[in-house]
Each structure stands twice: as structure tokens, then as C-alpha cells.
Amino acid sequence: MKASRWAWFKNLVKDLKISTKLALGFGVFVLLSFLAAAISYAGSRAATNKIDLTSSVRMPVALTASQAQVDLLRMISDVRGYLALGDRAYWDSYQQSERAFQADLAALEQLTPEFDALNAGRFAQLKKAYARWSALPDRLYALRNDQLDREPAYRLLATDGVRLAGQVLIQMNTLIEAPRAASEKSVAQLQEMARFEASFAAMLSALRGYTTTRNRIFRQEYEVNLAANEISWNQIWSERSSLPEDQQKILNQVQEKRQAFLALPDQIFPLLEGDRWREDLYLFRTEVVPLTDEMNTLLAKITADQQTLLTTELDEGRRSLASANQVILAGGIIAVLIALLLAFVSRAYIAAPIRRLTSVARRIEAGDIGAQAAVESQDEIGILARTFNSMTGQLRKTLGQVRKEKTRADNLLNVVIPLGVQLSSEKNFDLLLERTVVEARAFCRADGSLLYLRTEGDLLKPVVVRSTRQEAGPDEEAGRQPDRAVQPLSQASGSLQGPGVAAQAAMSGQTINLDLTQGASAAGYKLQAEISKIGDFSLEKAETGGRIPASVLAIPLKNSSGAVLGVLELLNARDAESNQPAAFDHNLQQMMESFSSLAAAALEAYIREQTLRQEIQKLRIEIDEARRQQQVSEIVDTDLFQDLQSRAHDLRERKRQRRLAGGNPQDIPTDTPADTPPG
Length: 679
What we know:
6 strands, six-stranded antiparallel beta sheet, 4 domains, Four Helix Bundle (Hemerythrin (Met), subunit A), alpha+beta, Beta-Lactamase, 20 helices
């Protein structure tokens, strides 16, 4: 009883569809997995809460605070770099870092509800410090860009110092250029004034160098030049009484301006050597740096607290997960048992039939096309086996067709191309046309073939026709012009509604392949009229039964520029095995198009050669005519010819005078002039 129930169950499972089998098996597996997951969820809920708190608060706060520290350090570094170098790139980088720091503060502010009181107070202090700090960089930027504002010593020198020094040098130059009596004393005064002017200019230059660089070497240089200038000035001032009154007034002005200028270094040197020689650096050092340190300390404390809380909560979550892992382990064991059961069922009812089907496929791969798959069930594998058997049957048919195609490809390689080469070397035009038609009909096993050539007036002239009753080869036709009833295609097509197939192929430049083996319509072409005219070319109606042919293939012959030279038309293809009427298949059409291209090339080459011969003959005639005219010209230009021409003119004149006088013109000699004695 149990055995029969087991057999019934096996048959039931075997005939179920694979989708049903998999749905039942995995449905049970999913149900049990869901139960195990529910138990695991209940056990790990506490750990999840800890992890959620860590991931949603502790870790974001710690990461954001750390990132805020990094952005703050970048800000202070960029400000320092801009103050030191004045490179605009540092200021642009500062603005980017500032935006990033502001975003960090905004992110921390969103998390403040989760802060404890201590960290909330720290964040409030951080915001106040940043509010004071944020106004300072713009002041530093303005100071750095205005040298007069940021450097008091330089401002004093660039304004009052340069003005006073310029006046001293200008007035001293006026004294030097003033007219004076030529004397040894005057020359000595001029030399002393020049030394004064040079030492004063050197003083100004050294003072400027010390002001801009704070290099002590420039101060020493200033003091050396000051001593030299003092000596020159004392010498000039001691001899001022020898100068004219106007020059003494100028010298007094120089004294006044010089004393005012010499008072400036006492103001400049303390500024340069003090803490505020640059206002921007002083502001940066006294206000920006302390505020930065304060904010960095607050952020570091917030980060440290969050990291401590993060470590504590992770330890608690780890302990909760350890207890949940025991529950997950038990659920995993149950899942493994279910998976083993599903694997056994899948192996018996899915994998084994597929392996047997694969074995049959390998036999077919090895070449046993007659192998058949056993249909063991009604599920998808059974359907696949039946489809597989149908596929192998179709494969056998396809292989047969492939063999046919291979044979045709070999024909293209071994027959069509050699024929094209032979056509290209043919010198007899009639034999060239004849061979084109004969070889095309024989290769396609067609009942008839025609060759049309395009003539003036866009007419197609049928020049060659061959049928199965005309078996004369091209060699037998060599040297003899066949007797053909030449008709323009427009007349040969009769008066039916559509164009002829050859005419349509010539007009469109495309191959026309009509398959009428199943009695299909002729698509408006005047086939019946064409067949009646083919009869005029000895293709008897017995070969077509007086009916429309089973197949027609019209291929335009185009030259290298795409112009249509003619049309090759083939009628009634025959099957190679049954010799029954068949269609011109696609592969055969391609081979014949290749053949027609070779034939058209040969025809074009022949026409080009004949045209060239005619042009050469015409050129020879023109050359002979030019040579003859040159010879006549040489004869006319001789003295003998000119003398004869003069005598003939005199003779005609005497005849005319005699005629007018009533005499007989015959009395005047015709071979000598009147004043020449005869003999």
C-alpha cells in the first residue's frame, strides 16, 4: 500500500511542470527561512537599536566634527598662504574650505537634538567663536591687497618720504644746472653737489629696500650713505655765501626738505622692527589664530566624546549580536536540511533528464544527426525533448541545403571567376556577346537566355538569344554574325499594361528576380509578350508550353560609372536534381550578378578599345590632311609658281581688252605674254 502511494507520488511529481516543482520547493524553503529570520530578528533587535544609534548619531557626529576640523585647518592654511604669497588661488581655496566648514556646522546643528548638555554647550561656543572669526578673513583680504594699509612704514615712506626726497633731488638738480662763472671753485661746488645728490638718492634707495624687505643690510647701507651725504651737505652749506642770492634761497629750501626727510627714518625704523610692521599679519596672529585654536579645541572635544560613546555602544551591540548568532545558527541548520532535500528532488526530476538530453546533444555534435531524445515527462523538459527532435530533423534538411550552397560557392570560385577572366581577354565582339549568353544559361540551367544592348534613344536591342534547342557553343559561332530579328524593346513588349522585365531592370539599374513557380502574379510585367518575341529568336513555345515562364532573372550590365550598358535575361531555371522548373534563388542571383559585373567590365573594355582605335584613325587622317596642306603651301610660295600666276593674269587682262575692242580673243597667245616674242 505504501509502495503504491510512493509510486503515485513519484509520477505526480514527475509530470508536474518545472515551474510548479520549483515553486513548491522554494515556497517551503522561503516559509521556513522566514520563520528562522523572524526568530533571528527578535534576537537581534536590541543590537540593531544600538547600531542604529551609532550609525545615525555617534558616527555622523564624530565624522562631521573631524571633517570640520580638517576644513578649519584648510581655511587657516589658505588664509596664511594668501597673506604670505598673495596668490589668488589660495583665496579661492579658502572660500571653498569655508563653504565646506559651514556645511559641516549645518550638519552638526541638525544633530544637536541628540547631544548631551556638555556637547550642546560646546557647539554653542563653537558657533559664537566662528561668528567672530568669519568677519576677520575679509579684513585680512583687504589689508593684503592694499600695501599702504597693511604696512605703516611703507605708507610713510611712499607718501611723505618720496615727496620730500623728490623735492630735495629736484631742487639740488636745479642748483647744479644753474649758470655760474667758470672757475675752479665753481667746479668744486658742482662736484660736491653731484656727490650730495648721488648719496641722497642712494639713501632713499636703501631706505626703500629696508622698508620693503626688512633686511638689515639695507639699513646699514642707508646709514653709510647718510654719513657720506652729511659730509657733502656740510661742505655745500659752508660755502653757501659764495652762491647767488636766488641759489641760496633754493639751498635753504633743500635744507628744510632734507631735515624733514631725515626725521622720517626715526618713525619708520620702530614700525619696521615692531610687531605691527604688517597689520594683516598682526591681525592674523593676535585674533585669527586664537579663535582658530579655540574652535579646533571645541571640535576635538566633541569628536573625542562621540568616539568614546561610539566604542561603548558598539561593545553593547556586539554582545547582543553574539546572542542573536546562536539563533541564526539554528535557523541555518534547518535551511541546510531543506536545501539538501530540494537538491535531491532537483537532481532526480530536473538535472537527470537534462543530463540525458545533453548526452543526445553531444552525440549530434559528434556527427550522429539521427540521434533522438527520449520524451520522459510532460513538463518543460519533455517539451524540450520533442523540440530537440524537431530541431535535429530541421538540421538534417539544413545540412543538405548547406551542401548545395557550398557547391554553388565552389562554382563561383572555380567557374564564374575563370569565365570572367576569359571574357576580359576575348577580342571578338560577337563571340564575346555569344559566350556571355551561352555560359550564363548553362551555369543557371535555364531554358533560355537573352542579351540586350542599350542603343541611342534609350532602346534595348536584343542582340543574342539562346535556348536549350540551340546547343551551338561559342567557339562554333566565332567569326559569323548570327541572323537575329532585331526589335527595339518598346516594340517587342507589345501593348500590355506594364513594362518589360529587361526594360524595367535597365531603367532601375536593379536586378529583377520573378518567382512564378507557385502561379504568382507577374507584377504587371509584360512576360507573355516577351515570350512571344522570344519565339522569333527560335526559342520555341514548346519549351515554355506557351505560358508565362516559371521564373525570370533580369540583370543589368553596368559599367564602372554605374551606367547601364545592357541587360542579361534568363528564363525558366531548372532544379539540378529533378530538372523541374524552379526559381532563381538568392545565392544563384548573387553569383550571376558577379558574372554580369565581369561581363560588363569586359564589354566596357572592348567598347573603350574600339573607341580609342577610331580616335587614333581620325587623328591619323587629320595629320595627313595637315601634311598635304603644308606641301601645297610650299609649292605656292615658290618663284616659278608666282611667275606663272603673273603671266596668267596678264593673259586674262589682254583677252578682256581685246573683247572690249571687238577683236578676237583667240588671237592672243595663251602660253606667253603679249610683249614676249614667240619661240
